[in-house]
Amino acid sequence: MNQTGTNSPVVIKSQEKKLFGSGLAARLSTEPLVAVYPDAEFPNMYHLVMSLYVPDGAEPMIDDNFNNIVEENTEAGPLMIRQIIIDYPKNESPDSTWSLWKILINYAVEDEKLQAQAIRVMYRIGDPETSRGTVTTVKRPA
Fold first, then answer.
1. Which of 1, 45, 58, 75 could form a disulfide with 88 if both were Cys (CB 3.0 to 4.6 A apart)?
2. Cα–Cα distance, 81 to 101 (Å, whole number)
3. What is the rounded (10 degree) CA torsion for 3, 9, 14, 17?
4. What is the pLDDT of residue 64?
5. Which portions of the chain are predicted below pLDDT 70?
6. What's the burial of 12, exposed, middle or buried (CB within 10 Å: 0-12/13-18/19+)?
C-alpha cells in the first residue's frame, strides 16, 4: 500500500461522547463502527458517528487533528482518505470486560478542493500499536 500525505484543514464544530454500557463480556467488533454523512444544508460540513468498544475503565480520546489526508493506491485506483485516531491505554486482558461508547463529531472542511473520498478511523492502543482501522466512504446524494 503506497501512501502520500496532504494537509486539509478541518474545524471540529462539536464533539459528544456517550457511554452506552459497561461490563460487557465480549465486544461485537474489534474495529470502530463508523458512519459519516454530509450536512444537508452546508456543503463542507460532515457528521461522523462512531460506536466503539474499549476496556472497562478506559475512556476513548479522539485525536482532534483531522487535517491529514493520505492518498492510497488501491486495486480500484487512488483514494484520498482522511485519518482519525482514537487513543486508549492498553489495559485489556483475556478476561477484560468492555464498555460501548458512541461518539458524535460535527466537522467542517475549510478548503472545498481538499475533500476526502473516505474516512479511516483507527485505534491507537497504548504506544504505538495501532489497528488497520475502519474505512468509510462519503458520497453526496445525486
1. 58
2. 24
3. 20
4. 83
5. 1-5, 91, 127-142
6. middle
Q: DSSP assignment of 90-113, as one string?
A: ----TT--EEEEEEEEEEEES-TT
* Cell of residue 123, nine digits: 485505534
Note the Cα 70 to chain centre separation in Å. 14
Q: How far apart are CA 53 and CA 29, in angstroms?
A: 7
Q: Residue 46's closest CA among 14, 68, 20?
A: 14
Give the three cell numbers for residue 137: 466512504
Sequence ranges of the domains in the chain: 3-137
Residues 6+ apart with CB under 8 A from 1: 72, 73, 74
Q: Find the angle CA(49)-CA(54)-CA(60) to the nearest 5 degrees.
A: 60
Closest CA to 47 of 106, 108, 110: 106
Q: Label each residue of 15-52 as H, E or C.
A: EEEEEEEEEECCCCCCCCEEEEEECCCCCCEEEEEEEE
